[in-house]
Amino acid sequence: MSQQQNFDVVVIGAGPAGYHAAIRAAQLGMKVACIDAALGKDGKPALGGTCLRVGCIPSKALLDSSHQYHNLTHQFEQHGISVKDAKIDVGTMVGRKDAIVKQFTGGIAQLFKANKVTPFYGFGQLQPGNVVKVKQHDGSEVELKGTNVILAAGSDSIELPFAKFDGDTIVDNVGALDFTEVPKRLAVIGAGVIGLELGSVWKRLGAEVVILEALPDFLAVADAEVSKVAAREFKKQGLDIRLGAKVSKTEVTGKGKKKEVVVSYTDKNGEQSITVDKLLVAVGRKAASKGLLADGTGVKLNERGQVEVDEHCHTGVDGVWAIGDCVRGPMLAHKGFEEGIAVAELIAGLPGHVNFDTIPWVIYTSPEIAWVGKTEQQLKDEGVAYKAGSFPFAAVGRAVAMAEPAGFVKVIADAETDRVLGMHLVGANVSELVHEGVLTMEFKGSADDLARICHAHPSLSEAVHDAAMAVDKRAIHKAN
What is the similarity comment for this entry (predicted)? Predict the structure, then answer.
């Protein structure tokens, strides 16, 4: 083994949390190393974690391609645009996605170079005494000593014991991003973010899609009215979402192109089964902490395999921190971004903090779903007196002109102080509009503050303005 190398900060993982931590620490004058094991399709190191390689970025590329195709085949006629014999070349679409991924993973490598972050490619394991042993891809090992070590190992797809991934017929999000042709029939286990987004991609391109969700309610994590509108729109699109459907068994039959999967499940009508060409298992993700810690480090894992940390992402072991998907809190790239920056600044002696109450959530379906803060049900359960106002996109000129009238914006405020407690949206481009709620809540603003800010006309943002006005029953463009 080569001589131990010393750094101010050693980061294990170059996903959203890890690369932000590494770059911010380097900006603050520290000597930084960042370790990552991932390889791209070309077999070369690919920084950026699940998000850039097989998550957020590639899925949005496919969502956009499939949305364009769907508009071409289903929406353009109302605009007076006619097209004959429209086709989708899946290989070209996936190739475009791969090029975008390569651009962004390469971009992280360039940022590391510009900020003088030293990358190591391989598997990092924390040893006692803030030493990280790296097993590099060429078989060699190096030891890095960090005054501080930041664990940012990310997460992996949860595999079901009766639906093991084979990378072909039964797949996780990685496989569903790389189908070589549109499956005739696709089943998805799990109606969460990944299931809905990737189910939407292949449905738009012509697949019959059945989504099996074990829970009795659709998108129970979101506002009930938002979930109801979203479910209605997805049904219109032909997404077959079956609730209370608990999968118990899968069986792959046939060979080659004749392979099929028989999926057995139970629902309120008893035992059922469907036969499909591809099965996507999207039941959630788990912390990628296996092999991360050697014996004797003092760092603890909870029963879910997450690294235990305090509110400042410190593990309780001097100089050891953990961030992103491998710790508590939502598994969201932007949550990891903020934790990475906060920890780098705390190490430098600066104030660093992440406000979990103002982290936005987005599902990039069509219509998009987004929210920040509390739902009405949560506030009822907590006994908080509130008032709410909502406004439909069907009454917004820009939305109707775009042929995107579905959905609404809801603003929830404290009944006494008028302080905004939550914003819930479903509709076109609400992934961008939700940040009005984030900003208002971060600055402890009121619904009246939001209502008194001038919004451009015509714009989708007018729905936010009118929803804020509706909190006090003074919306202009709807009966209060």
Answer: Belongs to the class-I pyridine nucleotide-disulfide oxidoreductase family.
36 is in an annotated binding site: no
Round to whole Å and give the CA distance between 34 and 48.
11
Q: How far is CA 437 from CA 14, 382, 465, in A?
A: 30, 21, 11
Q: What is the pTM of this model?
A: 0.97
Tell me which residues of the chain have a pLDDT lower than 70: 1-2
> What's the alpha-carbon Rg for the chain, to the nearest Å?
24
User: Residue 314 and residue 311: Cα distance in Å, rounded?
Assistant: 8
Pairing of strands 408-414, 420-427: antiparallel
3-state class (DSSP) for residue 171:
strand
Q: Where are the alpha helices (DSSP H) in 115-210?
A: 173-176, 193-204
Q: Among the options 67, 312, 457, 465, which is catalytic?
A: 457
Domain boundaries, position 323: 5-157+286-354
Q: Does 479 fall in a domain?
A: no
Do 385 and 415 belong together in one domain? Answer: yes
Cα–Cα distance between 262 and 276 in angstroms, integer? 7
Q: SS3 of 315, please? A: coil
Could you tell me the end-to-end alpha-carbon distance of the chain, in angstroms, rounded to an integer? 73
The string of pLDDT tens digits covering residues 216-245 is 999 999 999 999 999 999 999 999 999 999
User: In this structure, what CATH number is given to the domain that contains residue 268?
Assistant: 3.50.50.60
Task: Write the Ramachandran bin of 13: left for phi over 0, alpha for psi from -120 to 50, otherwise beta.
Answer: left
Q: Is 70 a catalytic residue?
A: no
Q: Is 196 annotated as a binding residue?
A: yes
Cα–Cα nearest to 425, from 364, 335, 379: 364
State yes or no: 194 annotated in a binding site: yes
Q: Residue 189: which of 167, 207, 165, 168 has the closest Cα?
A: 165
